[in-house]
Specification:
This protein is α/β, with parallel strands linked by helices. The protein has ten helices and ten strands. It folds into two domains: 117 residues, 3-Layer(aba) Sandwich (D-Maltodextrin-Binding Protein, domain 2); 101 residues, 3-Layer(aba) Sandwich (D-Maltodextrin-Binding Protein, domain 2). Strand 1, helix 2 and strand 2 form a beta-alpha-beta unit. Helix 2 runs antiparallel to helix 10 and helix 3 runs parallel beside helix 4. It is elongated.
Length: 267
């Protein structure tokens, strides 16, 4: 979507919100001033959906004057939307490369960038699957389909590609891969039996009642998994966005992330 399209869409929504507040009846003006909340638009990696949705509710109680709107998706896709002018205030990626790309284009408030949480890459199957117990078992002829996020846009897929390449398994398994737009879709493929196994984050696996973790992919086989976050330079609500990001780094918020399977990072 072109940048001008984002601007026009945002302007249209703003006009609707203003006209929607004006009715046809003329009533005496009230002495009570209506407080319009500051809206923060957050673009976040799909694997953060459960944890951030929880924190969104908590923050609404703490800051009723702030309205959080969160869009979840593949980090690469969200990165491209920001580059094209999407009205985003805060970006939380599941991969470093997407954040670095935005920084190189001067689209971040550089001093706001932090590594928010960590994660682990795991191999999952349906609970009744007994064919796959190790990464090497993926080579069995009985294993039909391996779910993986598209490496070019999904960090979890990139980590999986890196690991399987280092473990000398990528080339032999390549014909079995079923590419997905994000880790949520990979998990869905496994849950519905469309693939025999899939690579997702520990946080995704923990939130599902239909899959089991077969093995944790060796951390030494891929780059460290971290979720960088930063305020977008075009934001019109810099302070509010920075305040929310600061809250996400608090011990209270970090405990919520841990509850959903993420790892805290040493500061």
């Amino acid at each position: 979507m072109k940048k001008v399209s984002w601007v026009l869409m945002f302007s249209f929504l703003l006009i609707l919100s203003v006209t929607g507040c004006s009715g046809g009846n003329t009533q005496p003006s009230s002495n009570v001033t209506q407080v319009i909340p500051t809206e923060i638009m957050v673009s976040a990696a799909a694997s953060l959906q459960d944890s951030l949705t929880n924190l969104q509710k908590v923050y609404a109680l703490k800051k009723p004057d702030v309205k959080l709107t969160i869009v979840f998706g593949a980090s690469g896709t969200l990165q491209q939307q920001i580059e094209q002018g999407a009205p985003v205030d805060l970006f939380i990626s599941a991969g470093k490369s997407q954040m670095d790309a935005l920084e190189q284009k001067n689209l971040l408030v550089k001093e706001s960038k932090v590594d928010l949480v960590g994660n682990e890459l795991v191999l999952v199957t349906m609970k009744d699957n007994s064919d796959v117990k190790t990464l090497e078992d993926l080579s069995k002829s009985s294993v039909d389909g391996i779910g993986i996020g598209t490496p070019e846009s999904v960090p979890a897929g990139k980590y999986a590609q890196e690991s399987l390449t280092n473990l000398k398994l990528w080339d032999s398994l390549h014909t079995k891969f079923v590419m997905a737009k994000d880790v949520t879709q990979v998990l869905n493929y496994v849950e519905t039996g469309n693939v025999a196994a899939g690579f997702v984050y520990q946080s995704d696996a923990q939130g599902s009642t239909k899959v089991k973790v077969v093995t944790v992919v060796p951390a030494s086989s891929h780059k460290p998994i971290s979720y960088p976050a930063a305020v977008i330079s075009s934001t019109k609500n810099k302070q509010a966005a920075e305040d929310f990001l600061k809250y996400l780094q608090s011990s209270e918020a970090q405990q919520v992330f841990v509850k959903y399977g993420f790892k805290t990072l040493a500061k």
